[in-house]
Design a protein that fits this description.
Blueprint: H1 3-9, H2 22-36, H3 42-70, H4 80-87, H5 91-94, H6 107-113, H7 121-135, H8 154-165, H9 177-196, H10 207-217, E1 222-226, H11 233-246, E2 254-258, H12 263-275, E3 301-306, H13 335-345, E4 346-357, H14 368-377, E5 381-386, E6 399-405, E7 422-427, E8 433-434, E9 440-441, H15 444-458, H16 461-465, E10 477-481, H17 482-487, H18 495-498, H19 512-545
Parallel strand pairs: 1-2, 1-3, 3-4, 5-7
Antiparallel strand pairs: 4-6, 5-6, 7-10, 8-9
Helix pairs in contact: 2-3, 2-8, 2-9, 3-9, 3-12, 10-11, 10-15
Length: 546
């Protein structure tokens, strides 16, 4: 039964899922993941299920475009024997950024033949993945062909195909398949990250942390780079930011570039970009280690966003690397290798946001203090943000955000505040809300407060549009000079600069002088009572001794 008819037959679903049923789609697909959990390792079943979801997406998007073509009044003018051929013209799909899906890779064909396919449903799916990759060069080597392996329960796989057939990514009003599936893919990445715990760090950064990086940097246009791109979350959120602020027609105002060392994670990134209508070529044609094999040696980016592995000791270090302009990072910790690599990628007015462990702000081991001092003196550090605990399920290590920039001047027509030789410190440790016993998220209000603080300090257009002005707030934010930072021995921990929050005055509170007099009187009374008790105790002890 074709997916549309199958969905119609499902009780309570009607012919098509409504806009509000995106959550229902997600629940169906998570059930699908659970069906396979026992028969393969976590990394494999993640790739397995997301690969299937992607195949369903490209098929639904293809069907959506095909229905548009079939409904075109001009098609009625074409002789009937040519209409079918017209609907199979590849260019009619690819020119609209829709992947071409060969007939035997379309979900209708897979669903109808899942039970009877020669060699089983696993072979059918592997062949479909292969055909889609051959038909679309940007997907070469990306889709998983792991469905016909010995450790895959073919009966469960057939049930999975049936479940996915009940989830339709088209027919959601004015929301295209791309939007619905994009949300579903992100939902899956988050669910898998929760399931895998610490192992998820290589492919997932919490959404609220990514949002904060994007809201501070405001990547409206230009080149966006991530040297440890994981599953591509920084790119996706950058695209969403542009769509939210300037409209979907402007999402191609940014071009994304990234690199990922893990093969499976690189595949996830390619699919994630494709699903969100972004160019998968941005993350290269192969996975590679950023330090050992920089695939973009000449790139100069307008924005860099990264959440590299914290405190990495196993990395490809070359002491004579030209990226180490501010000092050679130690083999024992790659934090300052990441920071200097990122600086090397910034254009003349480029800016960066980097997630690192708190230790990076104060460490003096193996020359790290000297490197930090050199970067501060080069006026590269724009803002430091201390994050609250429990934002990352993948690590218990407290984290912070580094914001770097090549140009703190007013930048001509932009008329920004001149922040040369100054650094903004923000202490956000008290922010966020716990969503469960172990995980905290930054709320919309938190994100707005932090990003508004930065933009007010920098004097950006968004701050001027809101009539924001900057002022230091004890316990929260402080604009420090380089001289002040030098006095603190170039330690960049925000708590050293913002000080303690001012206590709010209670209008009904007792005046200080009166409170001191009252407490003094009470203390003397208690001392007198204590002396009386002391005398009684001594008298009793004397009788016992006598």
């Amino acid at each position: 039964m074709p997916p549309r008819k199958r969905a119609a037959a499902a009780a309570g679903q009607g012919e098509l899922l409504s806009v509000s049923s995106t959550k229902e789609i997600q629940d169906i697909l998570w059930k699908a993941a659970d069906k396979l959990r026992g028969s393969m390792d976590a990394a494999q079943y993640k790739e397995f299920v997301l690969g299937l979801v992607f195949l369903k997406y490209v098929s639904d998007a293809f069907a959506e475009r095909r229905e548009e073509l079939a409904a075109d009044p001009e098609l009625a003018q074409i002789p009937e024997h040519r209409r079918a051929a017209f609907l199979e013209e590849k260019d009619e799909y690819t020119e609209k950024n829709v992947f071409w899906v060969p007939p035997t890779a379309r979900w209708d064909h897979i669903s109808e033949n899942a039970a009877s396919a020669e060699g089983g449903v696993g072979k059918l799916l592997d062949e479909a993945m292969d055909e889609v990759m051959k038909a679309n060069k940007t997907l070469t080597g990306v889709l998983p062909k792991i469905f016909n392996r010995d450790n895959v329960d073919q009966k469960r796989l057939k049930e999975l195909v049936d479940l996915i057939s009940d989830a339709r990514f088209t027919g959601h009003g004015d929301r295209p398949a791309q939007d619905v599936l994009g949300e579903t893919y992100e939902y899956f990445l988050e669910k898998f990250a929760r399931a895998e715990g610490k192992r998820a760090g290589e492919f997932y950064t919490p959404a609220s942390v990514v949002r904060l990086l994007v809201e501070v940097l405001e990547p409206y246009e230009g080149r966006v780079y991530d040297p440890a791109c994981g599953s591509g979350g920084m790119f996706v959120q950058s695209g969403k930011f542009v769509a939210r602020r300037r409209g979907k027609d402007h999402t191609h105002d940014i071009a994304v570039y990234g690199q990922e060392a893990n093969e499976r994670t690189w595949r996830l990134a390619k699919m994630n970009l494709a699903i969100h209508g972004m160019d998968p070529k941005g993350v290269g044609d192969r996975w590679a280690d950023t330090f050992a094999d920089d695939k973009l040696p000449d790139l100069k980016a307008d924005f860099v966003m990264a959440n590299p592995p914290f405190n990495m000791s196993d990395w490809a270090r070359k002491s004579d690397d030209r990226r180490w302009r501010y000092g050679t990072p130690p083999q024992s910790n790659a934090n300052y290798a990441w920071l200097q690599h990122i600086v090397s990628k910034l254009g003349d007015r480029g800016s960066a946001g980097v997630v690192l462990s708190n230790g990076s702000m104060s460490s003096k081991q193996s020359g790290e203090g000297e490197i930090r001092a050199a970067m501060v003196e080069a006026d590269l550090v724009s803002c430091m943000i201390a994050l609250p605990a429990n934002l990352f399920r993948t690590t218990a290590i407290p984290a912070c955000l580094w914001f770097l920039t090549k140009d703190k001047s007013p930048q001509g027509a932009k008329a920004l505040e001149d922040r040369r030789s100054r650094v903004l410190f923000i202490d956000a440790r008290a922010m966020g809300t716990m969503v469960d016993r172990t995980e905290r998220v930054l709320t919309e209000e938190d994100l707005e407060k932090i990003s508004d603080t930065y933009h007010a300090w920098r004097g950006t257009k968004s701050a001027k549009d809101k009539s924001l002005s900057y002022e230091d707030v004890p316990g929260y934010c402080y604009s420090a000079t380089l001289e002040e930072i030098e006095k603190h021995d170039y330690v960049l921990t925000p708590g050293r600069y913002v000080g303690a929050a001012e206590a709010e005055e209670d209008p009904d509170a007792e005046p200080v002088g009166e409170r001191i007099a009252r407490m003094t009187k009470e203390l003397f009374e208690q001392l007198d009572e204590s002396a009386k008790l002391d005398a009684v105790v001594r008298e009793q002890l004397g009788r016992i001794g006598g």
